[in-house]
Amino acid sequence: MPQTRSVSQKLGENIRAARMKAGLSQEKLAEEAELSRNYIGNVERAEYEVTVKALSQIAKALRTTVHELTRGI
Question: pTM for this one?
Fold first, then answer.
């Protein structure tokens, strides 16, 4: 039976894909979003559940929307 990915895993994958598409490193995204690089990495690896505030900051830094980052979840 296939494993289903958690919401945090899907969100982390979406954030990573958007970051890569934007050509940003985790460090640069963190700087733009006013978050730590460790936080960005932990969110992308689904080790942290991102807060709404942080998700909004990440979306703004990626010049996208929260809606786009949560697509398919």
Answer: 0.91
